[in-house]
Write a structure and sequence with these properties.
- Strand 1 and strand 2 form a beta hairpin.
- This protein is 38% helix and 15% strand.
- It has a seven-stranded mixed beta sheet, with helices on both faces. It has a four-stranded mixed beta sheet with strand order 1-2-3-13.
- The protein folds into two domains: 148 residues, Aspartate Aminotransferase, domain 1; 270 residues, Aspartate Aminotransferase, domain 2, CATH 3.40.640.10.
- The mean pLDDT is 95.
- The relative contact order is 0.14.
- Helix 3 packs antiparallel against helix 10, helix 4 crosses helix 10 and helix 7 packs parallel to helix 8.
- The longest helix has 23 residues.
- It has 13 helices and 15 strands.
- The structure holds pyridoxal-5'-phosphate (PLP).
């Protein structure tokens, strides 16, 4: 292309994205206060804007792009399915939908592929994404138990439909409380770095958080509670990895009272921490598991609930009053099937475990040692948080909880410094999260972490400066 042609191409691209500005109503935003980056393309762990600026996608978009941009196998599977059967209603049986359900059920918690009598058997109810997966998991739990109440954690995100946002334990719930689900209650989960229980280490935090939950269950009335819902590893609200023993303790508490355990794996399922489902790491078997995002890297929207056979059987003779026009959409499921096969052929779970333990974790700890603004780094696999503080002793966060405007400016400056270096981070409150596609090369991981290392000089400028 000549320079003139290239300039014309860019001008045409720009006029197209001006339509975004004029006509698209964007999520989670004051419409007048946003300036979204116009993205022109992507490949692997990288994407680029219309001016040709390239970014290493350290957020995997919204922590969903597990196999990266434009994976050739996923694109080919999508194209092939479009040519074969682009859509079919959920009342029909469909080969790719069935195949994906089988692949998921065989990898779900407690399921041995060979299947012996002691193994948990699963079925899969497909949805369009994570929020409706949570919505339907709660529906299943309520109808199965005949109880209404559901407990979920503060510092959690479960989606933006009525019950899912009511279950959410972060400020995104607040403006949505005009018509909440009336049967939701919240509890505090473990967060050792900022322990609400005065714990000194993970073991103590796990025990005390469990004692707290036990008390909440007691005070709410165990016989009124259908389910306890938790993110296996809290995602957006801090990459909070539960202390060993915590999830097993919640499982035991649920068993004591006939409460169902629902783990939300929308963000951490499908390889993010080197497991098909993060809960597998602790050998705990929930009753229901929600998933979305990484199941097919979001090439076509897809989510679902993995339903324990004992819950599914409730609906053998009784109608399950739930459904969606696009439940198990063949385009989405075809990409899901190819994604599972690609995970296996490319040994993705192994690479995430190995590179997480040998490259990401050690490099982040080294960064933490060098920068006084880093209070803590924590995480697993390809899922890490860098928690920024003004003072390591008092642990005062770099910006206040839920800060906006001028109060959030220090984080804005840090994020700008990361982006200037061609890396796109995931940001929440006073934290940078490192959540790159699971196919990111060791060199690109190093490149991204070096950018964060350099950008943290900006955060250090605020450390020791009282607010
Ligand atoms: N659950 C968790 C843990 C999530 O992280 C999210 C989204 O980020 C959701 C549920 C909601 O998923 P979706 O945005 O696909 O509705």
């Amino acid at each position: 292309m000549t320079t003139d042609q290239e300039a014309r191409r860019r001008a045409a691209e720009r006029s197209r994205t001006r339509a975004d500005d004029r006509y698209v109503f964007h999520s989670w935003s004051a419409q007048g206060a946003i300036d979204p980056l116009p993205v022109a393309g992507g490949e692997g762990a990288w994407f680029w804007d219309e001016d040709g600026n390239r970014y290493l996608d350290f957020a995997s978009q919204l922590v969903n792009l597990n196999l990266g941009h434009q994976h050739p196998r996923l694109v080919a599977a999508l194209q092939a399915q479009a040519g074969r059967l682009a859509t079919v209603g959920p009342t029909f049986a469909n080969d790719v939908r069935g195949e994906l359900a089988r692949l998921i059920a065989e990898r779900a918690p407690g399921a041995a592929a060979a299947g012996t009598d002691g193994d948990r058997r699963w079925r899969v109810f497909f949805t369009n994404g994570g929020a409706d997966a949570v919505e339907n998991a709660v529906r299943l739990a309520r109808l199965h138990t005949g109880r209404a109440k559901v407990l979920s954690a503060y510092r959690s995100y479960h989606g933006n439909t009525t019950t899912a946002i009511s279950l959410t334990g972060d400020p995104r719930r607040w403006p949505n409380e005009v018509s909440p689900d009336p049967h939701v209650r919240h509890f505090l989960g473990p967060y050792t770095y900022r322990s609400a229980f005065g714990a000194r280490d993970d073991a103590e935090e796990g025990e005390r958080a469990l004692a707290h939950l036990r008390e909440v269950v007691q005070l709410e009335g165990p016989g009124t509670i259908a389910a306890i819902l938790l993110e296996t590893i809290v995602g957006t609200n801090g990459v909070l990895v539960p202390p060993d023993g915590y999830l097993a303790g919640v499982r035991a508490l649920c068993d004591e009272h006939g409460i169902l355990l629902v783990t939300d794996e929308v963000m951490v399922g499908f390889g993010r921490v080197g497991e098909w489902f993060a809960v597998n790491r602790w050998g705990v078997v929930p009753d229901l598991v929600t998933f979305a995002k990484g199941v097919n890297s979001g090439y076509v929207p897809l989510g679902g609930v993995v339903v324990g056979e004992h819950v599914a059987r409730t609906f053998d003779d009784r109608v399950f009053p739930g459904g969606l026009t696009y439940s198990g959409h063949p385009l989405a499921c075809a990409v899901g099937v190819e994604s599972v096969r690609t995970f296996e052929d490319e040994r993705i779970l192994d690479r995430v475990r190995t590179l997480g333990a040998d490259v990401v974790g050690p490099r982040l700890r080294e960064i933490a040692d060098r920068h006084p603004s880093v209070g803590e780094v924590r995480g697993l696999g390809f899922f890490w948080a860098v928690e920024l503080v003004r003072d390591r002793v008092t642990r005062e966060p770099l910006v206040p909880f839920n800060a906006s405007g001028a109060a959030a400016a220090p984080m804005g400056a840090v994020v700008a410094a990361v982006k200037e270096r061609g890396v796109w981070p995931f940001v929440h409150f006073n934290r940078l999260h490192v959540a790159p596609p699971l196919v990111t090369s060791a060199e690109d991981l190093e490149h991204g972490l070096a950018a964060i290392d350099e950008a943290l000089d900006v955060a250090d400028g605020y450390a020791g400066v009282a607010t």
